């Protein structure tokens, strides 16, 4: 099975991890993407947000959440009174997966496979170990399954404070699954406002958790799901 594990250096320094990620060939996605899009933000963030993968604009810029979904996320963070500068943002998959339209000019997002998500998981674990957040917001199904296993359903566990054993040495960050901002953009116009409000509410829940949960794993009575459950093809 393909894996990024061989490309992840034994360091907790984010700058070194980001540099190594630029040379990652742990799955075939690097061949078509413009560049690796590593995480960015506060290196000591108490809250980390994980999305699915970079989109077209992120692939060109080399920075996560700068396209339409990123702008909607910024709006949701502002509504939740959360400063993006205090957060660390990244994606479960570091390369843009896409197909092209009939003319071959427009790049269209394509959901990463389970194998590709699993291959990229070592980078997420390295980022978690480095940043050591108190709470992690999993934006969408791909992000949620990357850490909580393929059986996790966002619709069933959305907004709950979850835990997964063994994600990072000596830590137990709270995990909160919610929808990806792109789901708000893609949804029917008549439900878009409610979807946006739900995302804001989940972000507020996560942010409040950073004020009440210690990083030593004393986080209340959430649902526990083993982190070692693989994302299977």
UniProtKB/TrEMBL annotation:
Pfam families per record: UDG (PF03167)
Domain Uracil-DNA glycosylase-like stretches: 38-204
SUPFAM superfamilies documented for this protein: Uracil-DNA glycosylase-like
Keywords: 4Fe-4S, DNA damage, DNA repair, Hydrolase, Iron, Iron-sulfur, Metal-binding
BP term (GO), one: DNA repair
InterPro entries: UDG_Type-4/5, Ura-DNA_glyco_family4, Uracil-DNA_glycosylase-like, Uracil-DNA_glycosylase-like_sf
GO molecular function terms attached to this record: 4 iron, 4 sulfur cluster binding; deaminated base DNA N-glycosylase activity; metal ion binding
PANTHER family (alphabetical): TYPE-4 URACIL-DNA GLYCOSYLASE, TYPE-5 URACIL-DNA GLYCOSYLASE
Record family assignment: Belongs to the uracil-DNA glycosylase (UDG) superfamily. Type 4 (UDGa) family.
Full protein name: Type-4 uracil-DNA glycosylase
